């Protein structure tokens, strides 16, 4: 049975370092939630607090409505999976999976039954008697997950569990993890610095920077509607134009930039005089005219990527156009006219230094 996890104004300080600052959030029961952010942003600290290895300096954590203060890791309805899986190398797969059950005094017959069920769940029905050392990286990963699920946690906490695997396996395991989460219905809290992982697997993502939860939303909201300059910069590629807000009305802001006046959405309600940056994705810009925003810049070079052509323009501007054979020329050395719609751009306050 899955449970929800509530963080209420959670702060964690280590001496003068504030690793997590005033984070409030509810992860729903049965949800696949990812914390995404660069190294040092406080993701692991959140996981440690939820699992009970650390108590927050301030704030409360509730799991299934129950306040977790003073409740140790073994008494919480959580299980944790790390990057280095810490499987017992000399034990068989079945012994590894059954270990937590044995510690809890579950009788042998019942243990065996549950181990078999878990091996089916992770699609390794014949692996019970194998040694861990005989398994591939992806198989070990699945055994680690089976072992964590054996104790029937309501919440599974995953700390960059795929980062030790090679790229192909990592991509394959994304789909497996997602599928496993949906089949078990267990609440997953996943931490990663890899936006691809977060975007492909999660129901919702919480983007973190410097201990602060910058934005929470599903993948589309995070990608299409970033609410802070950090989120716009960290998730996906963006062109940026810095300047000063000249006008704001009807949910739009016009920004005076070195490329002229450019207009974008204004979700943060910036006013004239505010310093800000306009963000627009390379794939939302097109060669030619016919949109609210237009600018001209010389093409420095272009890359053919098969499905796409990336053109690089002076001023650090990148545009990406689908390769259909009829795209307008973006000729190196020549000026190009670039257009994009106001609704495809967003104007956001500059992040504090
Ligand atoms: P990574 O992806 O590198 O693990 P992270 O986002 O998980 O990074 P945390 O490990 O949560 O980040 O660390 C957040 C901040 O808190 C960092 O500045 C880190 O140095 C600091 N920190 C974490 N644990 C401790 C500790 N036990 N004592 C002192 N400082 C700590």
UniProtKB/TrEMBL annotation:
Residues 5-235 form the ABC transporter domain. The keyword ATP-binding applies. GO terms for molecular function: ATP binding. It comes from the Bacteria. SMART domains: AAA. Keywords: ATP-binding, Nucleotide-binding, Transport. InterPro entries: AAA+_ATPase (IPR003593), ABC_SmlMolc_Importer (IPR050093), ABC_transporter-like_ATP-bd (IPR003439), ABC_transporter-like_CS (IPR017871), Mo/tungstate-bd_C_term_dom (IPR008995), P-loop_NTPase (IPR027417), Transp-assoc_OB_typ2 (IPR013611). This is ABC transporter ATP-binding protein. It comes from Azospirillum aestuarii. The lineage of its organism: Bacteria, Pseudomonadati, Pseudomonadota, Alphaproteobacteria, Rhodospirillales.
